[in-house]
Design brief:
By secondary structure, the chain is of the alpha/beta class. The protein has eleven helices and twelve strands. Strand 6 (119-125), helix 6 (148-163) and strand 7 form a beta-alpha-beta unit.
């Protein structure tokens, strides 16, 4: 439980910061919830609210009413939004649903945050880029999404920026490290012995453990809880929050299996056999960028952090 009265950096008693975590039971959301629950970061005090889907009763056709209801009910000072339609191929088949969850809902949350003086923390995606650049993308590089997912996420980013609310949009890429529905979970599966897993080797990006993103987000919230007002905090804006470097899913898989064996998380005899393949040959509904590494320099400089290389970051997921 949180202590309702605590001394922060400003020396005066502080009530706990009310943080509403939306999508707190998904891949990234669960990691953020775990990190916030585990740490009393920097001595800051946080009251974490992580409602389940049935408590949220999200009406995708009425995002503005939904957001207004959530703000009235939970009265958050910080909202961390992990809700999204993240199945990229499903977004092509259901563009209306993608638009409501990935664009209209963040816009509605931002307008409520602006009206109530709350901060919105939101997650964008490397899929806003077309991959033509072939060097790590910076925040001021022009987006050109190839998919409904990328386009609707970009509209969400723009709606938040236009709202004037206090916000940090963290653009992230290629998550792993969650217990289910991701590459590392597949690699660690106990039934892995003798299996052959095929991983794409023709697309480059940055794999990021959810634990790394969660750690960074929790630290940002901790500083928010410990400092009065906006003074001393990073300005609102868009930041690429990513490990450094670039690789393919195949090369990541090889490195991850090697590290998992070294860390004792995977017995060598149970390790799957990995095979690279050209994903471009698959006829999938959504196009993915062939290159989508993100450059975290602005995030590092503004938040005073140093991001690890993608190989070094693997240990956070083991
Ligand atoms: N995964 C990646 O590789 C990746 C890469 C770049 C950016 N991102 C961004 O990172 C953020 C988090 O992604 P993620 O991979 O953690 O997503 P995820 O695992 O698919 O989680 C999405 C969350 O949204 C919730 N949700 C979806 N539809 C809902 C509805 N109608 N009502 C209530 N809740 C609903 C889900 O609830 P349930 O738990 O109840 O299903 C889940 O908690 C997203 O903004 C995504 O665009 C992800």
């Amino acid at each position: 439980m949180t202590d309702p009265v605590a001394a922060g950096d400003r020396g005066a008693p502080l009530a706990p910061l009310r943080v509403l975590l939306l999508g707190g039971h998904g891949r990234l959301g669960s990691a953020i919830a775990a990190r916030l629950a585990a740490q009393a970061p920097g001595g800051a005090h946080i009251e974490l609210l992580a409602p389940r889907r049935h408590e949220l009763a999200l009406d995708p056709d009425a995002p503005a009413d939904t957001a207004a209801r959530w703000f009235a009910h939970w009265r958050p000072e910080v909202v961390v939004n992990c809700i999204a339609l993240t199945d990229v191929d499903r977004c092509e088949r259901e563009p209306g649903a993608a638009r409501q969850l990935n664009a209209a809902l963040p816009g509605a949350l931002a307008r409520e945050a602006a009206a109530g003086g709350a901060r919105l923390i939101h997650f964008s995606t490397d899929y806003v880029f077309d991959g033509a650049l072939r060097r790590p993308y910076r925040e001021d590089d022009a987006p050109n999404p190839l998919s409904v997912y990328g386009a609707t996420k970009l509209d969400g980013d723009r709606a938040i920026a236009d709202s004037g609310c206090r916000h940090w949009i963290f653009r992230i890429s290629w998550l792993y490290g969650a217990p289910r529905r991701n590459v590392s979970a597949m690699l660690l599966e106990r039934a892995g012995a003798g299996r052959t897993l095929r991983l794409a080797n023709d697309r480059l990006g940055v794999p990021n453990p959810v634990q790394l993103v969660a750690r960074e987000v929790a630290d940002c919230i901790a500083r928010d809880a410990a400092i009065a007002g906006a003074a001393g905090l990073a300005p609102s804006g868009l930041y690429h929050l990513s490990a450094r470097g670039a690789t393919s899913w195949y090369d990541f898989g090889v490195a991850f299996v090697r590290e998992a064996i070294r860390a004792g998380r995977l017995a060598a005899q149970r390790a799957p056999h990995l095979e690279g393949f050209a994903e471009a040959a698959l006829a999938r509904p959504a196009k993915r960028p062939q290159y989508s590494a993100l450059d975290p320099s602005r995030y590092e400089a503004t938040f005073g952090r140093a991001m690890p290389g993608w190989e070094e970051a693997i240990s956070l997921a083991l």
